[in-house]
Write a structure and sequence with these properties.
It contains eight helices and six strands. It has 214 residues and is of the alpha+beta class. The chain has a single domain, classed as Glutaredoxin, CATH 3.40.30.
Length: 214
């Protein structure tokens, strides 16, 4: 189930109510995550990076192009899920934290495509991920170090010409998916259709989506 982005004040009430019902150990993380999303809305407003989640069906050609793209794989399951993200995107960070623990149990081959357009430091952080010896570990470093001041936690580096080319190609794929929005999820459903989700799903929506992946 998808949900629209509520007004920041409304979101704070929702998050606060959830925290009161949660076990004490989760309060700190829920408050931190709520703060990230509120700060993102204040900093970027309701820009394309934080659009209301929207599902569309893409042309099969997009799946073929994704297969030949420069992606970073986590997990070795048979069920392929592409996630297009920006290292500075708070909503991508939330989605990463939801997906990372279930990669194995959901039998996923989670394929990350890095883009860099929502903040001035995004290209340098994307380059640090793509040029790392272990890109999966670099993504994890970026997300584990995510904070409300600098967003993505990885240190910037200067992109090489090859990295610039990869980032341009990945951005082209994001545009081909229909919207320049992060996070974007792309997968094949049980009927073989290429499904695209622009924006952040809630937990129930993400759980239902994972069940649909072929």
């Amino acid at each position: 189930m998808s949900r629209p982005c509520p007004h920041p004040q409304q979101m704070s009430y929702i998050r606060a109510g959830a925290a009161l019902r949660a076990p004490p150990r989760t309060w700190v993380w829920q408050a931190f995550r709520a703060g990230l999303l509120l700060l993102a809305l204040a900093f970027w407003g309701t820009s394309s990076a934080f659009a209301v989640p929207e599902r569309t069906v893409a042309h099969p050609h997009l799946w073929e192009r994704l297969d030949h793209a420069h992606w970073i794989a986590q997990g070795h399951g048979p069920r392929i899920l592409y996630m297009i993200f920006d290292p500075n995107c708070p909503y991508c960070h939330v989605l990463y934290d939801e997906l990372e623990p279930v990669v194995r149990s959901a039998h996923l081959n989670l394929r990350f495509l890095v883009v860099s357009f929502i903040a001035p430091s995004s290209p340098g952080k994307a380059a640090a991920i793509l040029q790392a010896k272990d890109p999966v570990a670099a993504i994890r470093q970026n997300e584990k170090g995510f904070n409300m001041e600098h967003f993505g936690g990885i240190r910037e580096t200067i992109p090489t010409p090859e990295t610039d080319k990869i980032l341009a190609e990945n951005l082209g794929l994001l545009d081909e998916s229909g919207k320049r929005v992060v996070p974007t999820l792309i997968y094949r459903d049980r009927q073989g259709q290429v499904q695209v989700i622009h924006g952040l799903l809630d937990k129930s929506g993400l759980k239902a989506t994972l069940k649909q992946i072929r």
